[in-house]
Structure formats: C-alpha cells, structure tokens
Design goal:
Largest sheet: 6 strands, parallel
Bound molecules: flavin mononucleotide
Radius of gyration: 16 Å
Number of helices: 8
CATH superfamily: Flavin prenyltransferase-like
Number of domains: 1
Strand order of the largest sheet: 3-2-1-4-5-6
CATH architecture: 3-Layer(aba) Sandwich
Helix content: 40-55%
Length: 207
C-alpha cells in the first residue's frame, strides 16, 4: 500500500503541543507530512511552550527535526513551506495528497476555511481539499463558542469535514498532560484511518 501524504496545518489556537505530537506520530506511521504553520501559531509556540520558532521553512524544519529527534527517513518525510508559497504541492488539487488536518484550528482559520478564503497557504490548502472532496479533520480550540463559530463548524461538517474539538476525555484515567494530548491525537489518527496505540480503545481494558 502506498504511504499516505497528509497536510498538517498548525494555526494560532492554544494547544501547539497537540500538533507536535501529531506530527511525531504521523511521521512514525510512515506518513509524508506537508506542514504549514501560521504566524499566530508561532506566537502561541513562543508564549505557550517557551519555544520561539525560527523564521523560514528550512530553519523551522531543522528545529523540528531536533525537537522531535527525527531519524533521517522521518526527516525526509517532513516537508515545510512558506505561507505564501503558491507553487507548493499543497496549493494545487493535482498533487497526490490524501487529506488535511488543521490542529489546533483557531476560530479565525475556521472562519476562513468555512468561507472559502485563500489569503494564505493554510486557507488555500483547505480550499483545495474541500473542492477535491479529500479527508479533512479540524481540531477547533475555543470555549465558549459563539453561534457564528458553531455555524462555521456545522457548515464544514455538512461538507464531510470531521470536526474534532480539542476536548480530551478523562475516562482513560490520564496521569499527565501528555496523556490528555495523546487522547486527542489518537482520535485524530483514527479519523485519517491510521492505527494508534496511544490510547486503549474503550472496552479493551475491561476484557
Ligand atoms: C497564546 C495565544 C492563545 C490563543 N488561543 C486561541 C484559541 O484557543 N482559539 C482561538 O480561536 N484563537 C486563539 N488565539 C488567537 C489567534 O491566535 C488569533 O485569532 C489569530 O489571528 C489566529 O490566526 P491564524 O488562524 O492565522 O493562526 C490565541 C492567541 C494567542 C497569542
């Protein structure tokens, strides 16, 4: 079976750690990851993780390779693009990409995607995924939400987008923040048809 190619977009909602863990797991599963990081996500990384990301896609890739201690083969599967690189594969429906995950998804990016905007590469890639009817998962992180935001989620859900709010459960008895992150990442992996062993499926611990 051919390996999957997925776009991962990190927007400026709280929860940069979800995205880091997601990228690590996707690469570990042999997926080719096309990674897009918004300006606001960089700000979140700086404030939330005390990790200011370097400018430019090559230095950012190097920083991620070091942070995630990626092997050479996993590093080869990590592709980054600048936010206005309209010539990149993610900007066109002709590139053989299987789908897109926006994690975390800010309400700003949610609104832009729900309204078909293309002002940056994240929005363009999402527009392409929608028009090509590709698998799309969004992980909104906001609370409480307004009727406008609910409307945007509803609109995307009607188009087949999997709306997976970053609201971890507690029934797996988390002992750490990492366990809560893994809960969400496990659910995302399931939505893109990848196996996961981060969280035991409900019921298996009772057998
Ligand atoms: C530390 C921090 C946390 C934020 N958390 C959220 C959030 O959880 N949800 C949200 O919708 N916006 C959040 N924002 C605001 C967004 O970053 C802002 O609306 C931005 O314009 C989103 O841009 P983007 O969608 O291009 O990434 C946060 C901003 C900062 C600096």
């Amino acid at each position: 079976m051919q390996a999957k190619e997925l776009i991962v977009a990190i927007s400026g909602a709280s929860g940069f750690s979800y995205a880091l863990r997601l990228v690590e797991c996707l690469l570990g599963a042999g997926v080719r990851v096309h990674l897009l990081v918004s300006d606001a996500a960089r700000e979140v990384s700086r404030l939330e993780m005390d990790w200011p990301l370097p400018e430019g896609h090559e230095p950012l890739k190097q920083a991620l390779v070091e942070r995630l201690a990626l092997s050479e083969s996993h590093a080869r599967n990590l592709c980054l693009y600048d936010k206005r690189d309209w010539t990149s594969p993610v900007a066109s429906g002709s590139a053989p990409i299987d789908g897109m995950i926006i994690c975390p998804c800010s309400t700003g990016t949610l609104a832009a995607v729900a309204n078909g905007m293309s002002t940056n590469l994240i929005e363009r890639a999402a527009t392409v995924c929608l028009k090509e009817h590709r698998r799309m998962v969004i992980v909104p992180r906001e609370t409480p939400v307004s009727a406008i935001q609910l409307e945007h989620m509803h609109k995307l859900a009607q188009l087949g987008v999997r709306v997976l709010p970053a609201s971890p459960g507690f029934y797996h008895k988390p002992e750490s923040v990492d366990d809560l992150i893994d809960f969400i990442v496990a659910r995302i992996l399931q939505q893109v048809d990848l196996p996961q062993d981060l969280i035991k499926p409900w019921g298996s611990q009772h057998s």
